[in-house]
């Protein structure tokens, strides 16, 4: 077996809670090494939640019983909407009918079913044992399909409730979106998909909006990069900050949307603070809603974790509120059922920053069953679940004076007085309990920033500022004044200018000062668009035109990422790329950047949209702690020895990368895209370097007539034997002297092969099968597979590349978990 079925279980994540965890998702913080059912008890848990009266006595048993049952397997068809629809069609019309009527050991097994509330039926669930997945040929095959499509990012294995928050944000392609606590990134992927709603099956759109995915854990930001590589986006930035003190981001006036009536004095300023239309606060929490997936929590759960996280959760939400545009929306979510992490945070945030309201969205997702937020609760002041103090004052009075200052409890742990709770509309929050729809436990609140009416027809024109710097938010001129949060000393952020401390009540709105000294616009204004002079070397030219997203001063010396350097469109290498790749004049060449200390286009070119470029150019990337931005589109192809011998290579250095092709495709001259059919695709699948002479006509003549280099091929829909290509497929190839290579990752190739040909016909699969045949162990003595072996195991599972029993089990644990 790949891992032990028994053993100790870690009970707490980072940051004192689910900090590293997430509902579902590929997240190992609370690895669910199996806990015996008999051990699924925790007196403190029961006592605490009984005291909260969140459920009736009748429901309590059902709730507790469901908490002890394993979760169904759930997944979401991911990627751009059109592509997702196609794959969903395959699941619905091909896989599910095959799985209907399966009988295993005398019992019928239900096929996957669509999650009723997920839009367009793109999310699924099924509840079958590992034994069925292993032994039933039909389910084994379906499982292989899931493993492959998960590997290449077309399917996201995600807990059902974890899919909810992005659906309540209703992101549109022009929105400026912030995901405050984003790693590992399953919700980030959903937000990106919404930003890319205009994508087609083959081509990506370039949204005018923006998604910043942030996480305070540097290592985990790399999970975000991995996750988002599945939907390459020029509109993405990944940052590494403590969300509760997220810095103000500057944007120039041309990226600012001025509401009508903006004072000329304000509009004339050069820089403003970027405000967001949508912010997700999926905050670190104690995670007791994930107990079904992470049964180790049973052993360690205690309510002081929730008490301890409350302050951080509140500060993150308050920071989000200060970065929101008027009319903008925040979704606050946790996978905890504890009111101290939920309604208490919402109530304290609403009280500390006026001008916000909870949005009532009970029927937003028809079919979703949830309960209203609660208006009163009983925090415990110690581990023994002492919940008898009705107010903070009662509690603090009970302490000897000498201990009061050390208390970890805050007034905001307690519920507001009943009339205030009604005023705050806390019942508009949404609570999801496991027994309602066989899910994990979850909490969601949707907040909106509203204009604050003052006298007839007028609104307050007060803006929050970034501490002493008076950074204002011109996008939201008509917002409320922001009061200093009523937090106790350890939560008070006003001393930190980046934490958004509140301005004096009468501070007028101000744009950021034009003269930012060390943070002014970087070097692109140095005649960057003048073409290279005849005397100038490429390198000189680059020095002159460099537009690094880095400014001196204010920089964070501990931030070690490479700088971001925008390359001038006139750069000789860019010009060569444009010519060789046949990119049309509309190609946004000025949005290409490189990431290396020298700022030279030596390996990969990334593409951003205009807004991301603007942010990179107007902010010190070390202050932003920018881990990545945009998406890789063009990469250097080392010329083969053969090409170099022939004197070639210099002109052929760059090619469109497979991952960047959807972004670049709309700009490639259609005449330059080669046409082919499913037969040519089969040849390219079956060999690493098939000879040009091995293709049928007309593709053979087309490709034989081409010089060495990078090309893009559009495969038309069609059928051969049992294989079927139902839609256009566009892929990059590399033509050498006499052969051709499909330039996609071997896992993507295998997934594609399974989808189109019904089996893995790739060379990698054949090689793997051969290798396995030579080393097949005797049953019972099988090797433990590593993560990267999963594909191999899947081939075995699907019976397509030899079969050994143990690796199949390993693959199951990768996906079914
Ligand atoms: C519940 S998880 C987020 C899950 C994520 N939204 C998803 O759907 O994949 C909470 C995340 O918050 C991060 N985190 C903890 N404290 C933070 C802070 N102060 N600022 C930003 N992120 C923080 C943790 O590293 C963790 O990745």
From TrEMBL:
<comment type="similarity">
    <text>Belongs to the class I-like SAM-binding methyltransferase superfamily. RsmB/NOP family.</text>
</comment>
<feature type="binding site">
    <location>
        <position position="282"/>
    </location>
    <ligand>
        <name>S-adenosyl-L-methionine</name>
    </ligand>
</feature>
<dbReference type="Pfam" id="PF25378">
    <property type="entry name" value="PUA_NSUN2"/>
</dbReference>
<feature type="binding site">
    <location>
        <position position="215"/>
    </location>
    <ligand>
        <name>S-adenosyl-L-methionine</name>
    </ligand>
</feature>
<dbReference type="GO" id="GO:0000049">
    <property type="term" value="F:tRNA binding"/>
</dbReference>
<feature type="binding site">
    <location>
        <begin position="181"/>
        <end position="187"/>
    </location>
    <ligand>
        <name>S-adenosyl-L-methionine</name>
    </ligand>
</feature>
<dbReference type="InterPro" id="IPR057286">
    <property type="entry name" value="PUA_NSUN2"/>
</dbReference>
<dbReference type="GO" id="GO:0016428">
    <property type="term" value="F:tRNA (cytidine-5-)-methyltransferase activity"/>
</dbReference>
<feature type="compositionally biased region" description="Basic residues">
    <location>
        <begin position="1"/>
        <end position="15"/>
    </location>
</feature>
<feature type="region of interest" description="Disordered">
    <location>
        <begin position="455"/>
        <end position="564"/>
    </location>
</feature>
<dbReference type="InterPro" id="IPR018314">
    <property type="entry name" value="RsmB/NOL1/NOP2-like_CS"/>
</dbReference>
<keyword id="KW-0489">Methyltransferase</keyword>
<keyword id="KW-0539">Nucleus</keyword>
<dbReference type="InterPro" id="IPR001678">
    <property type="entry name" value="MeTrfase_RsmB-F_NOP2_dom"/>
</dbReference>
<dbReference type="InterPro" id="IPR023267">
    <property type="entry name" value="RCMT"/>
</dbReference>
<keyword id="KW-0820">tRNA-binding</keyword>
<feature type="compositionally biased region" description="Basic and acidic residues">
    <location>
        <begin position="460"/>
        <end position="472"/>
    </location>
</feature>
<dbReference type="GO" id="GO:0030488">
    <property type="term" value="P:tRNA methylation"/>
</dbReference>
<feature type="region of interest" description="Disordered">
    <location>
        <begin position="1"/>
        <end position="31"/>
    </location>
</feature>
<protein>
    <submittedName>
        <fullName>Multisite-specific tRNA:(Cytosine-C(5))-methyltransferase trm4b</fullName>
    </submittedName>
</protein>
<dbReference type="InterPro" id="IPR057285">
    <property type="entry name" value="Pre-PUA_NSUN2"/>
</dbReference>
<feature type="binding site">
    <location>
        <position position="242"/>
    </location>
    <ligand>
        <name>S-adenosyl-L-methionine</name>
    </ligand>
</feature>
<keyword id="KW-0949">S-adenosyl-L-methionine</keyword>
<dbReference type="Pfam" id="PF25376">
    <property type="entry name" value="Pre-PUA_NSUN2"/>
</dbReference>
<dbReference type="InterPro" id="IPR029063">
    <property type="entry name" value="SAM-dependent_MTases_sf"/>
</dbReference>
<keyword id="KW-0808">Transferase</keyword>
<dbReference type="InterPro" id="IPR023270">
    <property type="entry name" value="RCMT_NCL1"/>
</dbReference>
<dbReference type="GO" id="GO:0005634">
    <property type="term" value="C:nucleus"/>
</dbReference>
<feature type="compositionally biased region" description="Acidic residues">
    <location>
        <begin position="506"/>
        <end position="518"/>
    </location>
</feature>
<dbReference type="Pfam" id="PF01189">
    <property type="entry name" value="Methyltr_RsmB-F"/>
</dbReference>
<keyword id="KW-0819">tRNA processing</keyword>
<feature type="compositionally biased region" description="Basic and acidic residues">
    <location>
        <begin position="480"/>
        <end position="489"/>
    </location>
</feature>
<feature type="active site" description="Nucleophile">
    <location>
        <position position="335"/>
    </location>
</feature>
<dbReference type="GO" id="GO:0005737">
    <property type="term" value="C:cytoplasm"/>
</dbReference>
<keyword id="KW-0694">RNA-binding</keyword>
<dbReference type="InterPro" id="IPR049560">
    <property type="entry name" value="MeTrfase_RsmB-F_NOP2_cat"/>
</dbReference>
<feature type="domain" description="SAM-dependent MTase RsmB/NOP-type">
    <location>
        <begin position="63"/>
        <end position="450"/>
    </location>
</feature>
């Amino acid at each position: 077996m790949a891992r032990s079925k028994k053993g100790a279980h870690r009970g707490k994540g980072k940051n004192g809670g689910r900090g590293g965890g997430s509902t579902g998702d590929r997240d190992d913080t609370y690895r669910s090494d199996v806990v015996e059912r008999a051990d699924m008890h925790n007196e403190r848990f029961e006592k605490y939640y009984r005291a909260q009266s969140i459920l009736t006595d009748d429901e309590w048993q059902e709730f507790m019983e469901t908490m002890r049952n394993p979760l169904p397997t759930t997944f979401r068809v991911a990627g751009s909407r059109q592509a997702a629809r196609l794959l969903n069609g395959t699941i619905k019309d091909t896989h599910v009918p095959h799985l209907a009527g399966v009988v295993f050991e005398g019992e019928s097994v239900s096929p996957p079913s669509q999650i009723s509330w997920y839009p367009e039926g793109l999310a699924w669930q099924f509840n079958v044992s590992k034994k069925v997945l292993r032994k039933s040929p039909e389910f084994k095959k379906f499982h292989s399909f899931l493993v492959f499509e998960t590997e290449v990012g077309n399917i996201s294995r995600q807990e059902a409730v974890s899919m909810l928050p992005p659906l309540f944000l209703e992101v549109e392609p022009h929105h400026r979106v912030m995901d405050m606590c984003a790693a590992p990134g399953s919700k980030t992927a959903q937000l990106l998909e919404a930003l890319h709603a205009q994508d087609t099956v083959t081509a990506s759109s370039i949204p005018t909006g923006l998604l910043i995915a942030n996480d305070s854990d540097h290592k985990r930001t790399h999970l975000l990069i991995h996750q988002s590589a599945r939907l390459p986006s020029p509109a993405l930035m990944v940052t590494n900050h403590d969300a509760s003190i997220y810095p103000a981001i500057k944007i120039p006036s041309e990226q600012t949307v001025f509401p009508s009536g903006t004072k000329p004095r304000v509009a004339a300023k050069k820089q403003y603070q970027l405000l967001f239309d949508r912010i997700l606060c999926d905050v670190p929490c104690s995670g007791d809603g994930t107990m079904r997936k992470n049964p180790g929590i049973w052993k360690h759960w205690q309510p002081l974790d929730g008490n301890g996280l409350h302050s951080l959760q509140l500060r993150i939400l308050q920071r989000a509120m200060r970065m929101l545009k008027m009319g903008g929306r925040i979704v606050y979510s946790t996978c905890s059922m504890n009111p101290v992490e939920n309604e208490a945070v919402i109530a304290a945030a609403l009280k500390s920053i006026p001008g916000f309201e909870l949005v009532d969205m009970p029927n937003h997702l028809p079919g979703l069953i949830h309960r209203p937020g609660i208006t009163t609760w009983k925090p415990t002041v110690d581990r023994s679940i002492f919940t008898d103090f009705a107010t903070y004052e009662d509690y603090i009075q009970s302490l000897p004076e000498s201990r009061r200052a050390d208390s970890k409890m805050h007034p905001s742990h307690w519920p507001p007085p009943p009339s205030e709770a009604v005023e705050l509309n806390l019942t508009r929050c949404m609570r999801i309990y496991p027994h309602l729809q066989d899910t994990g436990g979850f909490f969601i609140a949707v907040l909106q920033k509203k204009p604050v009416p003052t006298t007839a027809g007028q609104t307050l024109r007060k803006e929050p500022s970034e501490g002493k710097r008076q950074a204002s938010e011109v996008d939201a001129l008509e917002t409320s004044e922001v009061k200093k949060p009523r937090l106790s000393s350890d939560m008070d952020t006003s001393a930190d200018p980046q934490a958004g401390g509140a301005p004096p009540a009468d501070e007028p709105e101000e744009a950021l000062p034009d003269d930012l000294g060390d943070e002014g616009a970087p070097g692109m204004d140095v005649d960057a668009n003048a073409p290279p002079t005849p005397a100038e070397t490429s390198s000189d030219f680059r020095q002159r035109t460099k537009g690094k997203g880095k400014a001196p001063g204010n920089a964070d010396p501990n931030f070690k990422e490479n700088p971001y350097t925008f390359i001038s469109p006139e750069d000789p290498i860019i010009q060569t790329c444009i010519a060789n790749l046949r990119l049309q004049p509309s190609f946004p060449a000025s949005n290409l950047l490189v990431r290396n200390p020298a700022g030279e286009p030596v390996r990969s070119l990334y593409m951003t949209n205009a807004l991301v470029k603007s942010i990179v150019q107007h902010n010190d990337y070390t202050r932003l702690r920018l881990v990545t931005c945009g998406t890789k589109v063009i990469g250097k192809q080392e010329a083969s020895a053969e090409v170099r011998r022939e004197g070639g290579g210099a002109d052929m250095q760059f090619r469109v990368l497979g991952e960047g092709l959807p972004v670049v495709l709309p700009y490639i001259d259609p005449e330059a895209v080669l046409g082919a059919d499913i037969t040519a695709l089969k040849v390219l699948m079956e060999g690493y370097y098939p000879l040009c002479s091995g293709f049928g006509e007309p593709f053979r003549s087309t490709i034989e007539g081409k010089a060495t280099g990078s090309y893009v091929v559009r495969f038309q829909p069609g059928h051969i034997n049992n294989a079927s290509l139902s839609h256009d497929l566009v892929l990059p190839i590399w033509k050498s002297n006499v052969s051709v290579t499909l330039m996609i990752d071997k896992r993507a190739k295998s997934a594609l092969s399974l989808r189109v040909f019904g089996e893995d016909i790739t060379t990698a699969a054949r090689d793997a099968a051969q290798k396995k045949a030579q080393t097949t162990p005797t049953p019972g003595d099988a090797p433990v597979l590593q993560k990267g072996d999963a594909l191999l195991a899947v081939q075995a599972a699907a019976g397509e590349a030899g079969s050994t029993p143990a690796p199949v089990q390993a693959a199951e644990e990768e996906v079914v978990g």
